[in-house]
Every structure is written in structure tokens, then in C-alpha cells.
Write a structure and sequence with these properties.
This protein has about 60 residues and is mainly alpha-helical. About 95% of the residues lie in helices and about 0% in strands. The chain has one domain (about 1-59).
Length: about 60
């Protein structure tokens, strides 16, 4: 019984899987934030271009 407890205590395969899961979660969060920022800047770019076209046609 003590041998199994020592094996369980020294087994790190689950810890590795958890670490990979945490790294994947951080990377996915960084991607989501980056895409959100890119979408906001792209929206500003197109709205600014649209207003300039309207002004040019109105003149």
C-alpha cells in the first residue's frame, strides 16, 4: 500500500497535462484580446474612410 502511495505522490504526468492546459488557455486569451483590438481598429478605419467618402461626395 505504501508503495502505491509513493508512486502516486511521485507521478507528475497529470501536472504536465495541467501545465499544457494552462499554457493553451493563456495563448487563447491572448488571441481573443488581440483579435478584439484588431477589430476595433479595423472598425475605426472603415468608419473613418466612410465619413471621408461622404464628405468628398457632398462637396
Amino acid at each position: 500500500m505504501q508503495k502505491r502511495i509513493r508512486q502516486f505522490a511521485s507521478d507528475e504526468s497529470g501536472a504536465t497535462a495541467i501545465e499544457y492546459g494552462l499554457v493553451a488557455a493563456l495563448i487563447s486569451m491572448a488571441i481573443v484580446v488581440g483579435v478584439g483590438q484588431f477589430a476595433e481598429s479595423l472598425e475605426f478605419l472603415f468608419s473613418d474612410n466612410g465619413s471621408q467618402i461622404v464628405q468628398a461626395l457632398g462637396d
